[in-house]
Amino acid sequence: MNRSSFLRLPLRTLLLAALLALGTAATALAAGVLDRARENSKLTFGYRADARPFAYTDGGKPAGYSVALCTRIADAVKTELKLPNLQVEFVPVTATSRFELLQQGKIDLSCGTDTPTLARRANFDFSLPIFLAGVGAVMRIDGDRRVQDVLSGRAEPAKPLWRGNPGELGQNVTAAVVGGTTVEASLLEALRRRHVELNVVKVPDYAAGIQMVLDRSAVALFGDRPVLLDLAQRGAGAGQLLVIERRFTREPFALALPRGDSDFRLLVDRTLSRLYRSPEIAALYTTYFGAPGALAQEFFQTVALPE
Q: What per-residue confidence (pLDDT) applies to 126?
């Protein structure tokens, strides 16, 4: 149909076509993950490519603790649907795109470092917790010792530390945080409670934040502490970085799912619960974080649901 013919169509016809298109899209989303997987013989999972050891790209392939958990869930879907050859595709997502893609039905599960919040629960569901993390900070080893003391809790500033009132540091203090995460809001609140105010700038990912720290354009990078520990040990700045011992917040991580898909969520939680009660979880945890201590073991026993 050419443009002139299109313009001559009755308005009623155009509106009907638009409504049919919207209805088709809505029906696809409402079908549920398991129904779509059965129909398309495919699952699509999103994973963060910059959040090692939870989710990252290794040799062009997805890897990490969260990815391993999602792989177990994919195996459970294959068993549930009796589709051993079900295709499972992992697509990289960012801190900002992961929830958009999930809401649009372009991914079926978010495998990364998702923190359940009340605001997010208005639009998404979450699995059982997969990890208890928190906000931490990484600095250069040779960074300003006074900033390190303040962030470590060894000293409370007499005045707020910020660009308009530099306080006892006598300088503009800039820190970086990955945008599109809960770290930003929780971090600022935690710092305010400690009378520490910083000029916080958003960065698109951990790599950009680490580079700012290495270049001394930021005194610290705030983020999920397990990710920062991995970056300090194995990242581009290994040997030059120090992760502050102090945790500024404690937050659970979970896997984000489409809201209202009770069948898929039940399968996800059943898979995680069975894994948490088995000896396999210790080996999986050790691969990415070292042998689980008493707190980690108690965490898995506590969050696992009985049959």
A: 98
